[in-house]
Amino acid sequence: TGSGTSSSVLTIKDLRLTGSTADGISISPAVASGYYTFENVLSNNNNNGIHIGATVAINDVTIVNSTLSSNANAGLRVASACPSLTNLTVTGSTISQNQWVGFDYNPSSSNNVGTNFVFTNTNFVNNCASNTNSAGMHDISMWGFKGDATFTNVSIASSHTANGHGLVISP
């Protein structure tokens, strides 16, 4: 429901996305946009669970009580092509068993603007599940991040045997 404005948030609720070679959910509008809420979404066995691949500014993305798991790439990915992401909130969710990364922000370390990221009551479990990772593949990876981020009651349970880490923030 909604149209993606501050007065009419675009809400996707109670949805199951599984088994696609494409992304479970792709946010790739042609013009700057925002006000997306994903609630009680299961996205597994896709390329990325939720992919913010826009080449324009995005704001106000909320993920609530959702599971992003067993995807070929990342559970939640913000592409380096996205020049600005403001107000990302992830609450009460599980991001697990993704082959490369749980949360992947700006993997190419471009000069992007990301700020006001809030993760609350969220579990990251055994991402980098392929265990054939190279540097840069972690449970939470935030390259070139220069904004504000808050992690409250967040659990990271990793079993990396290669070069991965639980949490990497690199300004």
Question: Any overview of this molecule?
Answer:
The chain is an all-beta fold and 171 residues long. It has no helices and 16 strands. The model has no long low-confidence stretch (mean pLDDT 89).
Structure classification: mainly beta
Cα radius of gyration in angstroms: 14 Å
Q: How many β-strand stretches?
A: 16
Q: Could you report the average pLDDT, rounded to the nearest whole number?
A: 89
Enumerate the spans where pLDDT stays under 50 for 5 or more consecutive residues: none
Summarize the structure.
By secondary structure, the protein is mainly beta.
Structural key phrases:
mainly beta; six-stranded parallel β-sheet; 16 strands; 171 residues; ten-stranded parallel β-sheet
Write the layout of secondary structure elements.
Layout (H helix, E strand, L loop, with lengths): L9 E9 L6 E3 L5 E12 L5 E3 L5 E7 L2 E3 L4 E5 L5 E8 L2 E3 L4 E5 L7 E8 L2 E3 L14 E4 L5 E4 L2 E3 L9 E4 L1
Parallel strand pairs: 1-3, 2-4, 3-5, 3-6, 4-7, 5-8, 6-9, 7-10, 8-11, 9-12, 10-13, 11-14, 12-15, 13-16
